[in-house]
Design brief:
alpha/beta, 10 strands, single chain, 2 domains, Rossmann fold, six-stranded mixed beta sheet, Isopropylmalate Dehydrogenase
Length: about 300
């Protein structure tokens, strides 16, 4: 089981299996620099879709030669750029689609398209996001902090199902999932506790799931002992399922800006890993997000 990003990097490099990223609307310095960084570290090759002249100038500014990349000149609607990236993956000419300078909603539309997208025929047609960080000798995942705004019970179960292959890629075949709320007792006055209890009661194959659990009860054994919580997930959660996007977004950013954690982000639910980075992400965070996508490709997760 992997416990650090450095271990993942060592494993990926040892496999000598570079994957190709198709970067949609690549004329974007933050996204392009992430691909360049990952290429320099030896984990990916790059196909860059967008305004060719601008891309070449940006590469030169980064000390790169355009001859080391495949560049597809495109200056049209951003949705069409996303569709090109998806098409390259479906045709086996790339392995990982990545969002450049375009709206996340348009990138998601290209992924979710019933005819040309990347949703498996047997899937829920649900994409979700996982944030991953190192914590006390293991990885913890937060889901969903970016895509699903106010998921109902069925959607939250789908979000957990989407996260399980990511845990498997990390070497965790049966992760412990905490369905988060503010308290451990169920109260009608706090809807998330009712939902959490229902999700835990129904269960999700391939994991051990409990809820409601407050954050401290989910990851701190000291808190578990103090509260006298008797639960197989309490204090040991590998996956934190948040009730809605506000909680996930705040928790994700608190890990980054208050706790100083380097987060990787991966998009789940498609037939291949997908990379969406934020302009505010650090270079390490962007690199680890790409690294996670490459690991998932190698592991077939």
């Amino acid at each position: 089981m992997f416990t650090t990003f450095k271990e993942i990097e060592s494993y990926v490099l040892s496999q000598n299996m570079k994957k190709r990223i198709a970067l949609a609307n690549a004329h974007d310095e933050p996204a392009l620099s992430a691909v360049v960084n990952a290429k320099r570290r030896g984990v990916v090759e790059g196909t860059l879709i967008g305004k060719k002249a601008e891309i070449i100038q940006m590469l030169h500014n980064m000390g790169e030669s355009e001859t080391d990349y495949e560049i597809i000149d495109f200056d049209g609607e951003e949705l069409e750029s996303a569709k090109i990236a998806i098409k390259l993956v479906k045709e086996g000419k790339a392995d990982i689609p990545m969002k450049g300078i375009l709206q996340t909603s348009n990138f998601a539309r290209a992924i979710l398209n019933r005819e040309t997208g990347l949703i498996p025929a047997s899937g829920r047609r649900l994409v979700s996001q996982c944030g991953i960080f190192e914590y006390e000798g293991r990885f913890i995942m937060i889901t969903d902090a970016a895509i699903n705004i106010n998921p109902d019970v069925e959607t939250q179960i789908g979000i957990v199902e989407n996260a399980l292959p990511v845990a498997k890629a990390l070497g965790n075949d049966c992760p412990k999932v905490a369905v988060l709320s503010a308290v451990e007792n169920v109260t009608e006055k706090m809807a998330s506790t009712v939902t959490a209890a229902e999700i835990a009661k129904r269960g999700v194959p391939g994991c051990i799931i409990s809820g409601p659990l407050a954050l401290d009860g989910a990851i701190s054994m000291e808190s578990v002992k103090h509260k006298a919580i008797h639960d197989p997930v309490a204090g040991q959660a590998d996956i934190l399922l948040v009730p809605f996007i506000e909680i996930g977004n705040v928790l994700y950013k608190a890990c980054t800006y208050i706790a100083g954690k380097t987060m990787a982000s991966t998009i789940c639910g498609a037939s291949c890993p997908v990379v969406i980075t934020s302009r505010a992400d650090t270079p390490d965070s962007k690199y680890y997000s790409i690294l996670m996508a490459v690991l998932r490709c190698i592991k077939g997760c």
